[in-house]
Amino acid sequence: MKLTTVKEIYKNREQYLDKEVTVGGWVRSVRDSKTFGFIVLHDGTFFETLQVVYHDTMENFAEICKLNVGAAIIVKGTLVATPQAKQPFEIQASEVVVEGTSAPDYPLQKKRHSLEYLRTITHLRSRTNTFQAVFRVRSLCAYAIHKFFQEQGFVYVHTPLITGSDCEGAGEMFQVTTLDMNNVPKDDKGAIDYAQDFFGKETNLTVSGQLNCETFAQAFRNVYTFGPTFRAENSNTTRHAAEFWMIEPECAFADLNDNMDLAEAMLKYVIRYVLENAPEEMNFFNSFVDKGLLDRLNHVVNSEFGHVTYTEAVEILEKNNDKFDYKVFWGCDLQTEHERYLTEEIFKKPVFVTDYPKEIKAFYMKMNEDNKTVAAMDCLVPGIGEIIGGSQREDDLEKLEKRMDELGLKKEDYDFYLDLRKYGTTRHAGFGLGFERCVMYLTGMGNIRDVIPFPRTVKNCDL
Amino acid sequence: MKLTTVKEIYKNREQYLDKEVTVGGWVRSVRDSKTFGFIVLHDGTFFETLQVVYHDTMENFAEICKLNVGAAIIVKGTLVATPQAKQPFEIQASEVVVEGTSAPDYPLQKKRHSLEYLRTITHLRSRTNTFQAVFRVRSLCAYAIHKFFQEQGFVYVHTPLITGSDCEGAGEMFQVTTLDMNNVPKDDKGAIDYAQDFFGKETNLTVSGQLNCETFAQAFRNVYTFGPTFRAENSNTTRHAAEFWMIEPECAFADLNDNMDLAEAMLKYVIRYVLENAPEEMNFFNSFVDKGLLDRLNHVVNSEFGHVTYTEAVEILEKNNDKFDYKVFWGCDLQTEHERYLTEEIFKKPVFVTDYPKEIKAFYMKMNEDNKTVAAMDCLVPGIGEIIGGSQREDDLEKLEKRMDELGLKKEDYDFYLDLRKYGTTRHAGFGLGFERCVMYLTGMGNIRDVIPFPRTVKNCDL
Which residues of chain B lie closer than 8 angstroms to A421, CB-CB? Predict the structure, then answer.
């Protein structure tokens, strides 16, 4: 259907003023006096609404007056400026056609609903202001990430979701199977007969695309993956989801400094893109969700990120151990409270912490010359803590094999990965950005369930 | 590292000629005479290679001469024009530093390898010309799709991968579980106790994001999802994969014609984008993979797609039944041979077939007034057959419930979906584009295993 969008009207108002337009959308409210009435219309293309004035000269005046919140209508009329009113213009309707009514028990009435309640109606909550803003920003944020990497010639690799290997041994995984659970086939030794499973072996949902990405980086130099990843962790927190999206770039001929430069440039690009392309939504978050949001994001765009080694960071934090639930010491993993203290209190801006003890990081990270720390980096941001984790990768075959031996990893499971070090190995580095954490950071939303269209968490898999 | 890319050199050659540049990449070949030698270097950023000339004045001349295919090097030197030679320029190297050698058993020697062989080394095959071209085009194609929708204000929805519902009852699904397969818990009736599973119920991998997308279309008007989908089908063909990506737009206030216009505009946009942004790769496909490719794609960009109803198509095809393995009759599902005949022999361009018998289409498609056919469309393209399938959706609550009853679908499983028809229903439509099929169409590659970075098919889940 040829409809003018509310976005077009707001963005190019001069072009539409005093002209006839046809718009379609959903009723946010209706109020009428005896001879005329007002409809607040939202068409989904823009955060702001459009006021429609209708009159009893219309045949279906009574029908319109009775419309419930949520009804769909198509309005023809003239756009007129309203310099005295709150809204900049309104439509003087010549025709209001009801596309679809809204039953009286519509769960979204014109009042404020709690986020908890809205989580019980995921199929309708995106019609509210908050979720209009969240999911539009989420979409723009995803696009900005693609745009950033594509403009620099990165190749987007679709790493696989179903995997036969537990990449980094990273925690609990979901099993994927077509075996009959009522009657799991066993082999003659009594073990599960995975030869009968779809892939002929045990398979799981991926926890990271990194190792696959590395194979592509050694072919295309600069690559990224952006896809779903999974954790079967039994943690019912505001920050954990069982299914979430992750961005993982990987660059050949790149070291840890290149990696941090890339992460900083990417974050700034994404923030700028969202601020420019969703000003209405970002103002809404700043007013109603997180008062300091715009200041904080603008500050990030305009600061150079800080840099501190893990060892230095521990020295700083140890002096403040009285403030922490978990006391800091060299060798400990940093908790969110420590990360936030560093970025919020000490640096007052995003900061990279580098060179972590090898014991608390993954086997593939490049060993530093001290043989105690690895070339890892975490990027910490105010309000969140860690948002990005990355590293230079061990590119030396011998050192990598030695580290795998120390950790008891089976080398035959990583043949392909070791091949990359045998055939034209390069210094290379990459990182992972949790997409949902990024959206939370950009919107100020406090619960990961509210930035995922249909969240999957422990005991929760609706729709 | 600050390296000039081969792409930059090719695209802005004037800027680099007679200047010193530093490049990094992998050796495609080395040949030497006594006092100098040539390296063909590929750096992954561009389809073409760069010739490097090195001399025995270098300290490590002997080391360079011995480099194997696949070795990684960093070259410093002067870019000079070579008007007499096949290649437009070369680097006269002042320094060649070996970043990583390549072991003698490197599986990719300088000869043509079969696609079948290359499938056995998915971690290395992207270093070959064919897969450089395929996966760069795949990346550009994905980006073009995002760009197309984002430029028109569509909201990108991440529909869930793990799902508790079998959306369209569409065939075999993969089960997702954290239950112990060795000891599946049973309840007191002897049934599997899914209350103990991660989500507290039986869950599977999604086969389509459409129904979720519809909920967002009724909030944002124009939305799309672009993510992985899964089929546990036991079909070992060149066209089926267990894991593949799908694009599914959904538009409110849109009918079947709007839907076809959108599909046609999208396909043309994507083809144009790839032709413009990967001319070297597309020429390669045209020369070595599929001779008529460029003509065909240019023809598609410049034609208006044809339109024919299913009933008309059947009439046309019935006259040619002697040419088909499966004979055509009204009510039958069209096979690839029929589809290709229509688009290749009859229309000689892409064609939309519309208004299929309701019996062979899904329950949610809008019933036409004849009560026999539904407002469905398939887009057929030469060389492939069906590439897109879509429909207007049934937006009338009563008719939808009636159809679900006829088909024996449980309405309580679709509460959320029926709600969309209760609260502000709109005419709306959408389609699905199989991403891999699109990449095959754009590249002329004949096997889906060769357009997926790490393909998952029956009994095959490597890396």
Answer: 100
Name the residue type at position B68.
N
Question: CA nearest B202: which of A391, A265, A174?
Answer: A174
Contact B200 A456 (CB under 8 A): no
Q: What is the pLDDT of residues B211-224, one digit of tens each?
A: 999 999 999 999 99
Phi and psi at residue B279, in whole multiples of 5°? -60, -35
Q: Which of B5, B253, B461 sits opposite A203 (nearest CB)?
A: B461
Averaged pLDDT of chain B: 96
Distance CA B442, CA B300 (A): 11
Considering the entire predicted model, what is its pTM? 0.97
Q: For A359, which DSSP code?
A: G
ipTM score of complex = 0.97
Question: Do the Cβ atoms of A171 and A233 come closer than 8 Å?
Answer: yes
Q: Under 8 Å CB-to-CB from A62, ≥6 apart: which residues? A: none
Cα distance between residue A27 and residue A72, in whole Å: 6
Average pLDDT over residues B362-372: 97
Contact across the interface for A172 and B178, Cβ inside 8 Å: yes
User: What letters, b where the CB count within 10 A reaches 16 and e where it falls short, cover B118-131?
Assistant: beebbbbbbbbebb
Q: What tokens appear for A454 in the block? A: 């249909």
Nearest to B164 among A201, A426, A461 (CB): A461
One-letter amino acid for residue B290 of the chain: D
Let me know: does B99 contact A451? Beta carbons within 8 Å.
no
